[in-house]
Amino acid sequence: MVLEGFDFTDFLFDLIYQATMICIDNSEWMRNGDYSPNRFQAQADAVNLICGAKTQSNPENTVGVLTMAGKGVRVLVTPTSDLGKILACMHGLEIGGEMNLAAGIQVAQLALKHRQNKKQQQRIIVFGGGPVKYDKKVLEMIGRKLKKNNVALDVVDFGEEEDAKSEKLEALVAAVNSNDSSHIVHVPPGSNALSDVLISTPIFTGDGEGGSGFAAAAAAAAAGGVSGFDFGVDPNLDPELALALRVSMEEERARQEAAAKKAAEDASKGGEQSTSQDATMTENVAVAPSDTENKANDLMDDENALLQQALAMSMDDPATTAATRDTDMSEAAANDQDLALALQLSVQDSAKDQSSQTDMSNLLADQSFVSSILASLPGVDPNDPSVKDLLASMQSQSEVSLFLLHPEQKNNEDKAPNEDK
Amino acid sequence: EERKRTEEKEKEEEEREMACMHDHSCEDHDCSSDWSLYKHIDLSKVSALNEAVPGSAKSVFKAWENRLNSSEGQLVSNEGDPELIVFIPFTSDVKIKGISIVGGADGTSPSKMRAFINRDGIDFSDAQSMQPVQEWDLVENLQGVLEYQTRYSRFQGVGNLTLHFPENFGGDTTQIHYIGLKGEATQLKRDAVANIVYELMPNPSDHK
Q1: C-alpha dihedral over A85, A88, A92, A98, to 10 degrees?
Q2: Quick check: keyword Phosphoprotein in the entry (chain A) (predicted)?
Q3: How do A62-67 and A74-80 pair as beta strands?
Q4: Do B161 and B88 contact (CB within 8 A), yes or no?
């Protein structure tokens, strides 16, 4: 996918290679949900983002990961430039125990010492979520030892907010800091994702060297689907697309609520609604970028459920004409090309979806219902190939003969096709 | 008392074996050209561990006549910690005959020096556990006239030199104003090519 307006020459590749060890807090304190969805997941997202940014900004950078809690400090992966390996080891981490900050930092230092390329600068990034049981003096001593061995330290202070915790961590970073190479970031709980907050901090932007490189790499990594943003698209990079996706998502949500409402009631108009969407969709040839298609795929499951409900409803009262029962949905179809295309795709696919066929086959077993549905549609031409394809595919799941349209129905269906393909 | 005096004398003799006193005027031979190995140091890659000011290690490598001139800075260790490690890479392989150190006053001069050659990335735990190629006991040498000789056969093809100063004469920090290296430079280069550009397709304009 081409990120419009993204100038790749903005990438400043660090000429300074870094070896980084990330210390993850997987203690019991990470179950808390004050960061969405929970502290551990927010931390994991941030770690993935950092790994991506570091490895992208310079191919010779290496990143390693260790956990500080659980049964003890455990190195998951030693510094490597293989992003896949790093992300893989983040799976299946168990939460438990208490974080051991001092041991974690010392093991990280050891892991960095044995890095393959001695020319790399050493850096440790610590996610301090749980409380810190070591006192300030011990931490300062650790900090001085790091400074002596020229290891930089970044601390993300989040999670538990104890009295002395921030003070201790500040003292630790101050002891390590030489020439502004080490940083501490306090992230209070809130609606902002941990990773979003971190992107703007020096932890990502580096020490001013290659600053824009990291930030740009992070944005690219997020836009590439490492889930930094809502729809996989950075609003800064492509605002129209992001807006279109958001609008269609909201319309879809409204539509689903309305459909659920209808399912509870005893109405038949739902079926016509969803198929009327198809009709308008064929008219709207939306040149949607691939992101929309991805989103459409996500919506497909919802579409299947909706379609099922719609057809169930249509069974009860097939003869009534299509009154737009749900204004939201028709507005959505009329106004939103992306949504229209998404629905079209999903309907076409759901028509082939086996799981939804069981209900549908029963409903469609009675061909009169099908034809009556189609009869009441405004502007649907049953001779329309796409509609025919739809029926044909449904046909494959149940008896063939039941889906032949009765000739007498064609008169009703023969409305002026006001929609072109 | 006599024993103490003989001990001192022995110590002096030892030092004299290791050191060479420049108690002559420098017109006889050109000290400056002797101590010219600094020209073959790759200054951009000089690094030190436990220095108070990052990058200050470069300032100690200069011409012999400037050895007492600290206008461009000096190498000072962190407060309360006298250990220092200086990593000196060369632009070509060198043979080192002698080393001279000018330290600071008031006990800030280093008292011991341990040398390692051709090892990358030595840190303090490595330095303390490894056997150095050679080590010396230093004396306070504020005028820079003391030279510490090396076992020349061990310092023949030196691509980089690491000096570890574990102790000083009691000061809070260790200060080094000058490190002089005496020897010869060969034209050989020990390391593999440092900067490699990977090409998918050759582009003649890159090779001009």
Answers
A1: 50
A2: no
A3: antiparallel
A4: yes
Quote the CA–CA distance of A331 and A359 in Å, as a whole number: 28
- What 8-state DSSP symbol labels residue A190? B
CB atoms within 10 A of CB B200: 5
Residue A417, token pair as written in the block: 């096709």
**Distance (Å, whole) CA A163 – CA A173:** 17
H or E segment at B91? strand B84-103
CA angle A133, A138, A143 (to 5 degrees): 115
pTM: 0.59
**Mind listing the pLDDT tens digit for each residue in A284-295?**
444 344 444 444
A378: preceding bond cis by omega (within 30 degrees): no
- CB B120 to CB A119 under 8 A? yes
Chain B residue nearest residue A178, CA to CA: B54
DSSP, collapsed to helix, strand or coil, labels residue A138 as: helix
What pairing do the DSSP bridges indicate for beta strands A183-186 and A151-157? Answer: parallel
Q: With 50 as the cut, is the pLDDT of residue B54 above it?
A: yes
Minimal C-alpha gap between A115 and chain B (Å):
10
Which of B16, B150, B135, B49 has the alpha carbon at shortest distance from B95?
B150
Give phi and psi for A148, each to the nearest 5. -60, -35
The residues pairing with A122 across neighbouring beta strands, listed in sequence order, are A19, A151
Whether ipTM exceeds 0.85: no
B54 → closest Cβ in A118, A119, A178: A178
Chain B residues interacting with chain A (CB cutoff of 8 angstroms) = 47, 49-50, 54, 78, 81, 83, 120-121, 123-125
3-state secondary structure of B157: coil
- What is the torsional sign of CA A201, A203, A205, A208? positive
Q: How far is A418 from chain B (nearest CA, A)?
A: 56
CA separation for the pair A215, A209 (Å, rounded): 12
| Residue B48: closest C-alpha in chain A | A150
Distance of CA B79 to the CA centre of its chain: 21
Residue in B47, B78, B121 closest to A148 by CB: B78
Q: A144 and B124 in contact by Cβ < 8 A? A: no
> Tens digits of per-residue pLDDT, A386-411?
666 766 666 555 444 444 544 444 44
* SS3 state at A128: strand
Tokens (6 digits) for A357: 């066929």
* Contact by Cβ (8 Å): B88, B46: yes
DSSP assigned state of B141: -
User: Read out DSSP for B106-118?
Assistant: TT-SB-EEEEEES
